[in-house]
Amino acid sequence: MVQIAGKYQLVETQNFDKFLVSSGVSEEKAKKINEAKPIIDVSFDGNRIKIETNLHKLTTELVLDQESEEKLFSGQSIKSVAKLVDNVITVKSVGLDGNSVGKRTMTFSDSGMETVYTTKDNIVAKRIYKRV
C-alpha cells in the first residue's frame, strides 16, 4: 500500500477558484486561495486522519467511517464521513442542515496526491500535489 502520511506541495490546480466561489467563498478570497501554493501535511494514525494546511492555518481531523465536523475556507461548518479504500480517501460532506455539500477524493501515490472536489451542483475541481 502507498504511504499516505507525508507533506505535499501544490503544483497544479484546475477550476478550484470556481469550486470555492460555488461553496460560498468570495471571488477575491477564492482568487488568493487559488494562487497560493500551500504545503499540506497529512498524518494517519490507525483510523484517524489529520490534514494541516500551512497557508490557511486550516486543520481537518477525520475518523474513518465516522461523522466528523469540519470548517471550510468560507468559515462554514460541515459534517463529513471519510472512507479509505486502498490508496484513496473519499470524503462525503453535508451541511449542518443535512443537505449534501459534495465530496472530495484524495488519491495517493509514491510521487504525490491528487484531490478532486465535486460540489452538489457537479462543479469539479482538481489539485495536484508532489510529495516533499
UniProtKB/TrEMBL annotation:
Lipocalin/cytosolic fatty-acid binding domain residues: 5-108
Signal sequence interval, chain numbering: none
Entry-linked InterPro entries: Calycin (IPR012674), Fatty_acid-bd (IPR000463), Lipocln_cytosolic_FA-bd_dom (IPR000566)
Superkingdom of this protein's organism: Eukaryota
Protein name, entry field: Lipocalin/cytosolic fatty-acid binding domain-containing protein
